[in-house]
Structures are given as structure tokens and as C-alpha cells.
Amino acid sequence: MAHRGDERTKSALNGLSRLQHQMVEDHIDALMLGGSAAGAFAGGHVRIGVHMPGWPLPTTVVPHVGSPHVVTADPDGAVHLGEAFVHGIVWSRALMAESLRSWLAHIPVGVIGVDALSPAGIQLVKDAFPSAELVDATVSLARAMMPKTLEEMQFLRVSCELVNQAIRAGLDRGAIAMVECLKGAFPALPPYLGLSSARVAAVVNGFIGDARWGKGDRDALSAAIDMIQVGRSFDRLATDLPSGIEVVGLGRGYEPPVLREGRASPSGLCVMATSVLSVRSRSASVTIEASAQGPHLLSPSPKEVVLE
């Protein structure tokens, strides 16, 4: 399988390097990932399943050193990895356990981090590595994924600008104009998710931009944005958010954290510089970058996105 020296390849390698650095810092020998956002970040592939947000069994296996292994229904979505690291879906539990052991044979496996696996997936990992300690890796993943590089920030700025332009066109001239705006801005755009003329999600080079324009509480959105300061605990921030406001991380898929109804998931994180967050009410959203100077808008302000 050919290697492709495009922007996605460079971005994928950067993400893997950051994640493996975090693994070493957190004393994790290997990751067994089922979550689509974490898998795309670690492996750089486009998707790991079909019509599913995640997978009950490991689909991305990441050693603390070396290339990741990707289990995917779409081998063309991981063309930057060699053939030895891209595998078709395995339905046999015994064969999958054997494969996991072979993929990690080059390192000692004492601690394994897991994310969104089903109980059956957890048991599979235990069967494959009965002597290993399994730990929740969601915080480690979030710490690696939340801070954005200049390259990643540029993709997010572009996707954010694109979806908001599309919404303006949709509100002014209808859904057809919205679609034409998306196609006109990026002729080679991967399949977008056009939800309505007032809510759009689009993918730019693997990064998802999301925008919502609709009725809501401008003051609540503005107050929530002002609360997001670098170093502040997400757990505390979640309890202080105005009623009806949620905060979701944006990146290669919808990343942690998720702040909703007074709770932050995963718990134990703080706001990090260059994090990109969507601050949302039910019908309106604003995208911000967290910085040492305070929140920086990557989208139109609450005054514009909250419609009369």
C-alpha cells in the first residue's frame, strides 16, 4: 500500500507522536481504542466502521513506540500506513486476541489503556493479555488531542468559516444555496453532513466543523464563553455553566471534553491553550479557541448566531 505525502499524512504522524509522548508520560504501554475520534487521531485514518460512532472491539491499537494498527472496513481510509498495519474487520474473538498479541510482540505490555470498548471488548483484551493492567485512557487521550498545532488550527478555522458561510447562504436563499456554497468553497470536499439550513457540519481534511444558528439566549452563550479560561477545571466549569449550555471539544471528530448538565466527561481535565471548543445552546453555537489571553472567537459571535 503506497504512502502518500499529503497534509493528512503529516497531521496523522504529528497526532501519533503527541499521543505516544502522552502514553510514555502516563506509563501506558499500549492503547486499545474503539472510539472513532481517538482512532482517527492516533491512526490518521478516515473511518473505522460504517454508520457507527464507535466500535465495541479494539479498532486502533497503538504501541508506545512504532506504528499503530488499524482495523477498518475501508482500507483506502488508511493509505498512509503500510499494508502490515491495516487489517480487515475480525469477527473471531480467538483470532482477534491472537492478532493483538502479534501486533504488540515488539514491546513489553504491562499497562494497557482503553477507551470506548464494550464489556466484551474489555474481556477480549484481558484474554489476549491476562497479565496486563487495564486502565481508563480517556484523560490521556484528551490531553494529547485537545491542544492543536498551527496546521490543525488552520483546518479548524477553514471548516468553521465554511459551515458558517453555508448557513448564511441557507438562511438567505434556502438549502440548495447552502449545498452550493459548500461545493463551491471546496470542490474536493469529503461528504458533508448538511443537517438543515440553520445547522451544518462539514469535514475539511479530517477535521469536523460544526455551526448552529437559531433562537437562544445570547447572554447565556456570552457568559459561558467568558468562563472558559486556560487552566480552569472543566469539572468546575461544568457546574458553573448557565442552564441549557453545553461545551464540546472539536477536532478530528467530536473530541473530549463534553460538558453537559453540570458534569464534565472525562473528569479531571483543565482547559488547555489552543483547545478548540464549541459552546452551544439548543439551537445556536459559537466556536472558540482557548488561549492565555482569553477565549478567541473562530465563528460569528453570539449576537449573530442567536436569531430573533
What does the model show?
By secondary structure, this protein is α+β, with helices and mostly antiparallel strands. It has 2 domains: 7-145, Creatine Amidinohydrolase, Chain A, domain 1 (3-Layer(aba) Sandwich), CATH 3.40.350.10; 150-305, Creatinase/methionine aminopeptidase superfamily (Creatine Amidinohydrolase, Alpha-Beta Complex). It contains 10 helices and 15 strands. It has a 6-stranded mixed β-sheet, with helices on both faces. The chain has a 6-stranded antiparallel β-sheet with strand order 12-11-10-13-14-15. Helix 1 packs across helix 2, helix 3 packs across helix 4 and helix 6 packs antiparallel against helix 7 (175-185). The longest helix has 24 residues, at 150-173. The termini are far apart. The model is unreliable at 1-10 and 48-53 (pLDDT under 50).
List unreliable stretches of 5+ residues: 1-10, 48-53
- Radius of gyration from the alpha-carbon trace, in angstroms: 20 Å
Measured distance between first and last alpha carbons:
53 Å
The total domain count is 2
**How many helix segments?**
10
What can be said about the biggest beta sheet? 6 strands, mixed
> How many DSSP-defined strands?
15
CATH level 3 topology of the largest domain: Creatine Amidinohydrolase
Task: Find the CATH superfamily of the largest domain.
Answer: Creatinase/methionine aminopeptidase superfamily
CATH class of the largest domain: Alpha Beta
Please name the CATH architecture of the largest domain: Alpha-Beta Complex
Structural class: alpha+beta
Order of helices and strands: HEHEEEHEHEHHHEEEHHEEEEEEH
Write down the overall mean pLDDT: 85
Shape: globular
Q: Report the sheet-strand fraction.
A: 15-25%
